[in-house]
Amino acid sequence: MKILQWGFIGCGEVTEKKSGPAFSDVEGSSVVAVASRHEKNARSYAERHGIPKWYTDAQELIDDPDVNAIYIATPPSSHATYAIMAMKAGKPVYVEKPLAASYEDCARINRVSEETGVPCFVAYYRRYLPYFQKVKDIVDNGVIGKTINVQIRFAVPPRELDYAKNGQLPWRLQPDIAGGGYFYDLAPHQLDLLQHIYGVITEARGICANRGGLYEAEDSVCACFEFEGGLPGSGSWCFVAHESAREDRIEIIGDRGSVSFSVFDYEPIKLHTSEGLETITIPNPPYVQYPIIKSVCEHLQGIGLCECTSVSATPVNWVMDRILGKF
């Protein structure tokens, strides 16, 4: 079995519980180095997690001969740069979602992956969670019949950070870093899940607005889209809603029933058929990225296949850029 020795570029919140510990829980996998632009962050993370090396220069981490795989957990604007650096060094990459801050950067990543023969995987980990696999099974097994329509509905109030004390907005609200506002940060998971079930979206249009005036990025988005098989869908996202409008739901409507579920809150799945309403509760593993990280590691060890690659992730950015009117 190939022993994977990971180097982390970025050591923010997502690495603390969602992903970081999972790399050491997989057989034949460990974390040997971490890099952050801020020395204090890199040293602290390494000490707290028992990681032997830390760097303030990503290139030095990539060049470390003890590192043979790279995890990129930085904001999207730097994903393409670091992924390409790693692949050109012959080291496979696992990148946080979205793959990049634009469809164009995704295409660059795919081109280098093809040229070098080095794989790039993307952290659309919800595909691998039992909760969402249950939804896919319901659809695939025809429990709700033929799917007629798909609807995404998402609304949340502003966060305290959104009020920009001292003008310091979170990076997720800076389009030059994130690709857009919260839409570009949260919608990828929803769109990836639906494309995992129904195939790629081949047409998408959107209307975007800033209704709250808290920041410059869009805070309200409406969209319609069509999957390759002709299935229509729609989405509505609002990030400055009143608490009474809070919602996190995808509803799949079939000709024999419907199924609805949440993407971020993991509320019980609701299955409506002629037999009535069934509520299905499925817990998550302690580290939600563990199933996909295990799949990535097994792929690199030659004992499995992970299909969540940069190529499969790129259509998500295409859809979002179409909705936001980038092209």
General description of the model:
By secondary structure, this protein is an alpha/beta fold. The chain has helices at residues 13-16, 20-25, 39-49, 58-63, 79-88, 103-116, 130-140, 175-178, 182-198, 290-300, 310-323, and strands spanning 4-9, 29-35, 53-55, 69-72, 93-95, 120-122, 147-155, 201-209, 220-227, 232-238, 247-254, 257-261, 269-273, 276-280. The strands form two sheets. Strands 8-9-10-7-11-12-13-14 form an eight-stranded mixed β-sheet, with helices on one face. 43% of the residues are buried.
Summarize the structure.
The protein is an alpha/beta fold. The protein has helices at 13-16, 20-25, 39-49, 58-63, 79-88, 103-116, 130-140, 175-178, 182-198, 290-300, 310-323, and strands at residues 4-9, 29-35, 53-55, 69-72, 93-95, 120-122, 147-155, 201-209, 220-227, 232-238, 247-254, 257-261, 269-273, 276-280.
Beta strand %: 25-35%
Q: Name the helix and strand elements from N-terminus to C-terminus, one letter apiece.
A: EHHEHEHEHEHEHEHHEEEEEEEHH
Average per-residue pLDDT, rounded, comes to 96
Contiguous helical run count: 11
- Give me the secondary-structure category: alpha/beta
* Main sheet makeup: 8 strands, mixed
Rg is: 20 Å
